Every structure is written in C-alpha cells, then in structure tokens.
Amino acid sequence: MSIEVSNVKKLFGNPAVEVLKGISFKIDNGKFVSLTGKSGSGKSTLLYIMSSLDAPTEGSIKIDGEDVYKLSQKDLHQFRNRKMGFVFQFHYLLPEITCLENVLMPTMKTGQMKEYEKPAKDLLALFGLKDKFDRLPRQLSGGEQQRVAIARAMIMRPKYLFADEPTGNLDSANGELVMKILKSANSSFGATVVMVTHDPDFAAQATSQVFLLDGKVSGIR
Amino acid sequence: MWFLAIRHLVARKRQTLFTLLGIIFGATAFIVISGFFSGFQNFLITQLLDNDAHLKIFAKEDLVTEHSLDQYFFKDAEHVFWISPPGGKKDLASITDPQGWYRRLKSDPRVIAYSPHFTSQILVTRAKASVSGRLIGVDPHLQTKVTNIENYMEMGRFTDIGSGGNRVVVGDDFLGKVGAHYGETILISNGISQPKPFKVVGVFHTGMKPIDGSSVYGGLVDAQKMNGTPDVINEIAVRVTDTDEAKFMAEDWRQSSHEKIESWDETNANFLSVFKIQNATRYMMIAVILIVAGFGIYNILNMVVNQKRKDIAILRSMGFETSEIISLFLIQGLILGIVGAFSGMVFGFLICLYLETIRFGGGPLGGAGFLRISYAPVIYIQALVLSVACSSFASFLPARAAGRMQPIEIIRAGAD
C-alpha cells in the first residue's frame, strides 16, 4: 500500500508553462513525508495532484493501487471522505458553525455525527481546546483555529493526511504544536502524512524528505 | 445539508431578513391584489346572476326587405319591383309559440324556473317631467323565482304588483329621475297610447345603474293591455341550475328555434371581457413583483456563493459531492421561499380583513357598502406555489454555479 507518483507533468496557462516536469516517486504507507522546495518549485501543485484535487496534465497517481483520476465521482468523494484528510495553510473553518461542529463536518456526509461526537471532543481536548467546543472559529486564535482544522482532518482517522504549509501562518510555538500533532497522527493510527513546507526545521522532522527544484525532484532523503 | 443551510441563513440575519421581505411583499401583494380583484369580480357576477335571468329568449325582429315576399306571392317572377318597397321592421316582434316554449322549459331538468315577459319602451310623465324607460310586464310570482329581485327591494314587496291593476315596482334611480315617491302615482305611456296612471307599490335598488335607472316592473296583463296586444309575450327569462351550462343551453336551443337566445355571459360579454383584462393586469403586476423578489434572492445567493468559495472548497475536499453543494444553497432558497410565502399569506390575509372594513360607496357598486374581498383557497395556494417556485428557480442558478466550482481553483485563487 502506497502513494505512487509516476511521470507527473503539469502545464499551466496559455502559453503553457510546465510547472511539473515529469515527477516519479513512491511513498509507502505509514510514512511522514515532507515536500520542500523554493516558492515556485511546484511543491503545492504536486501535493494537490497527489491528493486528488487537481488532475495532472500527464502521468498518474495511484493510491492503494488505484488511479485516483479514474475513479467515478461518487467513489472519489467517498474516498476523500473516508480515507483523506486535508490541512490547508489558511485553515478554512466554516465560520457559521462551532468548533465541534466543524470537526464533525466530515461525519455529516455519512450521517454519523452522533457516533463521532465523543471522539471529536477527545480530539479537541487532546489539542488543548477542551473549553472551546462551542466557540465560533472567529473567537479563536490562529493557532487554535489551525488545531481545529487538523482535528477535522483527523476525525475520520484517514489513511492519508495532506497538509499544505500547515505551519505557514503560525508563530514558532504554535508551529511546533501543529508538528507534534501531525507526528502523533502518524504514530498513533499510522496515517501517511504528506506535508508541504518551506521551513527546513519542520521538514527535517519528517521521516523522509522530497526536494523539488524547478518542477523536478532534486533529491529524496 | 439542512443543518448547514440553516446556519448560513441565521449567520447573515440582515441579508436573510431583507431577502425574506422581498418574498413576503410579493406574496402579500399577490394575496391582496387577487383577493381584491376576484372579490370584486365575484360580487359583480353574483349581482349579474341574481338580478338578471341566466338565459333570455327574445322574439326575433325580422326585417322585411324588398325580396322577403317574393317566395310567397311571386314564385315564378324573375324580378319583383316595388313602387314603394316595404320598410324594414315588422309591426310587432313576438314569440310565436310561447306554449311550446313553456312545455319545453318545464320538461328540461336544467331549468329551475321561467318567467314570460312583455317588455316595451315607455315614457313616464309626472307634472312636466317625462323620462323614458322600460316597462317589463311580469307575473311577479314567476319573476321572483327567476331573479332575486325580492332581496333588493327597498320599499314594498315585489309581489305587490299582483296580477293586474296598474301597480308597478320601480328602480330607485328611475324614480328619482321622475321625481316621484313610493306610494305616488305616475303616468305611463308607450308613446302611442294615452298615458295611464300606475301606482308605485315598490322600490328596488340592485346596485346596477342600468337596471336601477330605467326598469319599471308591472303586471304582464297591464303591459300587454297598454300596448294593445293581449296574450303576446316577447321575452322569456329562464333560471338554470348551473350557470356555467347556460352558454351551451343557449347554443342548443338556438339550433332548434326561431327565437333569439342569449345566455347571461353573452349578454354581459363586454363586462366579462373587462374581467379578463383585469386578470391579465393582475397577473402581470404579480409577475413583476415576483420577478423582482426572485432577483433579490438570486443576487444575494450569488454574492453568498462567491463569499463562500472557500467553504465550498473545504466541503469538496471533505468529500461532499456536487449535488450536496447544490442542495446547500438550494435549501436556503427554498427556506426563504416557504417562510416568505407563509408570512406573506398571513400578512395578506390580515390586510384583506382590514380592507373589508373599508366603506365603498358610489360607483357601479352603490349597494355593496363595503369592499368585497375573496378568500378563495386557490389564491393562497397560488401564492405559495408561485413564491416557492420563484425562489427555488432564483436560487437554483447560484447553487448550480456553486456546484460547478472545483476545489483546486478556489484554493489556488486563495493562495495567490
């Protein structure tokens, strides 16, 4: 079981600019991988391609042996719902609903809100948000919001967790905290974590690192 | 997605309220305008049906022309020349076989009652004033079965006319024109005969100017006698069980008789065509109101969809499907539509209740006293269906646009 990236190319715009120039690598399940590179190196683009949100111009992504861009819409959405979690740089919480409800959003699709209420509370408590279940996102600090967003990504115990600059908007203390949580997701229930970051310190905390330069893999460690 | 949709609406209270107001105004306007117009129309139609016969059988006025007699007198002649050709009208139009008609009407189950008339133009004089009008000679007991004139009597009783003896019941406007009062005697002449005295034994007021201002009801025998034509009738008024059926009955009888037959809706065709124009105007007004309200919903939801691009992206990344995103916004439109429609119906109903208390004198409805408002359930059902249909359509377009948004485009745009 793995994420297999084979010969992925991506062109943008008109006239076309090749952002990714044929990338191939494989991430075994259970790993914590960081994608690093300068801005414009295509690392975020690669992450979205790997996570089924953006189709590549050429090449394929196989997750658990299945080409994600050949799944039917229904299967794809189910796959995202059950097996993937996303953490974005801008945490994107839904502003109208409370923290707890935000965390429970993915379970709403399957109608399991009730069953997941306790795990959601445990998760928030674990992230130090025990007394903020019923707060609205705007009543929280940036770091707290990001923790809620991670709790939301983790509520379904996804096999794959994709994070785009999760620490990008946070101070170093909150950044450390987020790294700790991501690492714990990796170690506690074995989620495969793929994280884009430009911070070399955080990148170094991953079990393996993929370096991108000008749309090509320049090194894997 | 109901949960999130409701949260969305509650989160932007002011926008929700204003959108709602648009729909409420639309639905209220629909209820009030429709209630007013159809109340008015129903009232007029009831008046028409009550005061006048549903069907009338008239003697046909055949015109005599140069060639009318060719067939009878000069069968073989090629040309017939007159020194002085016959001039138009026969001397008196009458129903040729009234007994035949009576038999026919009696045996028809669709006929409730009929009343033979002898109608003639008259001149009424009192002192130096003379006013022209119509004398309708009736059998009062038959006539009261055909129309509800008895209900509109202001003074006296309609049956006081009796079977003869020069007594008349007069419309109040007409009486005013003559300058006479209840209980006094007026002189009536058909223009040829010597004026004869008639006693005013009743006054009616139907609220219909043409009737109140010119009609004089008298005994059938008196009217025939004045014209010098005993036993002749020139009109039969008929009341039927189903007023919608009248038109077809008229059509039917026309096929098999010499007389001219008119149903109430044919007699009042110009009246009814005014209703059609009124209804068209009403529907246009309401359409405009609803379109405006619809645009309100459309604009606001469009704005909301754009504001919520990030939310849409995040929902998609959680595995929510296009259809679920569409329903998120569609539900909001539906809630607005349904809540707006129901509040509008309540408001409309209250305004209608108030309108009913307004005095409404004069005009063709002199007798009504108050505005007539219709509370027909169909108006309320229409208001509900129209508001909901309009708001779901208006929200469908933004919702579909939201459903089409691809998460990556939104995320990429957000990162730029």
Model description:
Chain A is an alpha/beta fold. Helix content of chain A is 36%, strand content 28%. Chain A contains seven helices and ten strands. In chain A, the strands form two sheets. In chain A, strands 6-7-8-3-9-10 form a six-stranded mixed β-sheet, sandwiched between helices. In chain A, a hairpin with a 2-residue loop joins strand 4 (58-63) and strand 5 (66-67). Chain A starts with a strand and ends with a strand. In chain B, the strands form three sheets. Chain B has a six-stranded mixed beta barrel with strand order 4-5-10-7-9-8, surrounded by four helices. Chain B has a two-stranded antiparallel sheet with strand order 2-3. Chain B has a two-stranded antiparallel sheet with strand order 13-14. Chain B is α+β, with helices and mostly antiparallel strands. In chain B, a hairpin with a 2-residue loop joins strand 4 (111-126) and strand 5 (129-138). Chain B starts with a helix and ends with a helix. In chain B, helix 1 (2-11) crosses helix 13 (322-355) and helix 13 (322-355) packs antiparallel against helix 14. Chain B is elongated, with a radius of gyration of 33 Å. Chains A and B meet through helix 2 and helix 3 of A and helix 1, helix 12 and helix 15 of B.
